[in-house]
Amino acid sequence: MRKVLSIVLIALLAITGLAASGASDSSGEAGKGELYIYTTVSDTHYDLTMAAFNELYPDITVYSTYGGAGECKARIQAEAANPQADLMFGGLQYADLDAYGQYFETYVSKNDELMLEEYRNTSGKLTFHDSQIPCLIVNDALEAELGIKVTGWESLLDPALKGKIVTANPTSSSSAWNNLQCILTDFGGWDSEEAWDYIAKLMQNGLVVVSSSSIPSRSTFSGEYVVGLTYEPSVVKMLDGGQTGAHMVFPEEGTTSVGFASAIIKGAKNLENAKLFMDFLQSDAGQQTYLDAGARPITTHKIEGGSQYMVDLDTILVKAADTQALADNKAAICDRWNEYWAKYGNN
Questions:
Q1: Residue among 120, 126, 199, 128 at smallest CA distance from 157
Q2: Is the pTM for the entire model greater than 0.85?
Q3: Are residues 73 and 107 in the same domain?
């Protein structure tokens, strides 16, 4: 189970100079001592990961604080002079290097060469471990009640869906950013006027923006919304858990496959243990936890298993996003999103 250090406790300890992650320095002896993590991953995946990691390293005690990707990155930035955690587990993408790369250690996992070539650690900072596919989650009963068929982005402009579509905030949520970059890719690129015209129309159709990436899936399953902008593992996990009444839709205009990563925080006090964790995430055992949690491993090794609800990629249209352009222009994209939301949102 997750050993959690509350945000309040960390803050209080930091003020007194007795922050738990700084209480001792075990960086000289790998495989023993402690490891402090900021994480974005779900409880289910976290527990799978830690069970497998501690089977290999039973003498490492892991503590974690959960938060959204934006929250974790902001905390790492604020604590740069005195890091309170050793690594960020999950929630990092190619687009984070420009703004946050300076806050992460340079480390390339010993298993990095086992990953598919397009996901290898060319920056020296980000340890990629899985790929995730943006998708829509659609409530069966509400879709039928409205007499509509959700097939992709254009179908979300149906007036019947006004105020009934939910997403997290793409300026702070990694999963919502994936949906935004998918829209931009499908409509011509990050600076395409066609893409931003679509976004304005979607906002004017009553798009609801919420604080957490877990809300769109949960609230659509529960019937609060008709459609949620989400990502495949979130829905697969709920379907595997017995949830019924909703289904995944991959936009007919196309979807994208985006790599997710973790990174060691610069100045980590348990550096050697953090390196072991990065190595583990790209090992066969670590990659297995991703498949078991409904995500897609990126290893070149064959991993057995997977959910029956994971779609065969050959059956959907997958497009290649211009990840470099998106990364280089993320700040401008987020600024434009905020401008559009101020103008067109909350209608």
A1: 199
A2: no
A3: yes
